[in-house]
Write a structure and sequence with these properties.
alpha+beta; Structural Genomics Hypothetical 15.5 Kd Protein In mrcA-pckA Intergenic Region, Chain A; 5-stranded antiparallel sheet
Length: about 100
Amino acid sequence: MSMRLDKFLKVSRIIKRRSVAKEIADKGRIQINGKVAKSSSNVSVGDELVISFGNKTLTVKVTQLLETTKKNDAELMYDIVSEDYKTDYRQPFSD
């Protein structure tokens, strides 16, 4: 079983809107298993997605595909492998 990338990102709530997921994918900022993906690319269980947001790069592994989810179940669709920040604004500045 597989699912379109833009739908997976929306249903899993990694990206809230499908139109935004499509835009990010079509700019070449998402990779599936190391290859640049389009919004229409298929995602399967076991695939590793690398998503480049502005300051953050999120790497997730697909664990299951669901057509629809409730908010609590959305996180069951993937495991976070890593979350990297170019600049970590969460740390307090030190002099």
